[in-house]
Design brief:
mainly alpha
C-alpha cells in the first residue's frame, strides 16, 4: 500500500493543477483536465483506504494525516466505505488495481509466515481486483487505439497490466499448492500461460 501511494504521489506531483468546474474551450484540454481531477480523487480514495487500515492498527495520528490529504484531493470520507473482501467493492478500477497489488504483497507475507489460509484470502481478492482493472484497460485500449497518436504505447501498457495479473495469479498458485489444492493451482498456472507469461519465480 505504501508503495502504491508513493507511486501516486510522484505522478500527482508532475500533474498540472486543475480546478473542478473550469470549462476549457478546447475539448481535448477539457478531457485532460477531467482526467486530472479524476486522478486526484482516485489518489484520495487510496489515502482513505490506508487511513482505514491505520485506524484498525490503532495509528490514529497517521490515519488523520491521510484523511486530511484525501479531502484536499477531493475525496469524500463520509461516502467512502469500501468492503475490502467483497465482490461489490465501491471504488474505481484504478484504485482497485492499486489495492489489489497491496493485497498481493500482504498475501505473500502471509505465505512466508506459514499462514497460507490468510494468504489465499488476500490473493484471491487481489486476482479479482487486478482482473477487473485488466478488463477496464482492454476496453479503454480498444476505444482509444484508433485515435491515439502512439498506439504502440497503449499496447505496451496493456501488456504491463497483463503481466501484473499474471504475477498475482502465479502467487496465488503457490498458495494453493501450499494448501494441497493441486487442481486449482494448476488452473492458475494455465491462466498465467494464457496471459502470455511463463509461471516461474522469475515472474515479477
Amino acid at each position: 500500500m505504501d508503495t502504491a501511494i508513493s507511486f501516486l504521489a510522484q505522478h500527482h506531483a508532475i500533474m498540472p493543477e486543475v480546478e473542478p468546474g473550469v470549462q476549457w474551450e478546447d475539448s481535448q484540454a477539457q478531457i485532460m483536465a477531467q482526467r486530472s481531477i479524476d486522478f486526484r480523487k482516485m489518489y484520495g480514495r487510496v489515502l482513505l483506504f490506508r487511513a482505514q487500515l491505520l485506524r484498525h492498527a490503532n495509528e490514529q495520528g497517521d490515519a488523520e494525516v491521510d484523511s486530511r490529504r484525501a479531502v484536499k484531493l477531493g475525496a469524500m470520507p463520509d461516502a467512502f466505505q469500501p468492503k475490502i473482501f467483497s465482490s461489490t467493492i465501491l471504488i474505481t478500477p484504478e484504485t482497485a488495481n492499486f489495492v489489489g497489488m497491496a493485497l498481493d504483497t500482504r498475501g505473500l507475507l502471509h505465505l512466508l509466515n506459514n499462514q497460507p489460509r490468510l494468504a489465499q484470502e488476500d490473493l484471491s481478492q487481489a486476482v479479482k481486483l487486478v482482473s477487473q482493472y485488466l478488463h477496464q484497460t482492454e476496453a479503454s485500449v480498444k476505444t482509444e487505439k484508433g485515435s491515439s497518436p502512439s498506439p504502440m504505447d497503449l499496447d505496451k501498457y496493456l501488456i504491463s497490466v497483463k503481466r501484473q495479473l499474471a504475477i498475482v495469479v502465479y502467487h496465488r498458485s503457490l498458495v494453493l499448492m501450499a494448501l494441497d489444492k493441486t487442481e486449482a493451482a494448476q488452473r492458475d498456472v494455465q491462466r498465467v500461460r494464457k496471459l502470455g507469461f511463463k509461471p516461474s519465480p522469475m515472474l515479477f
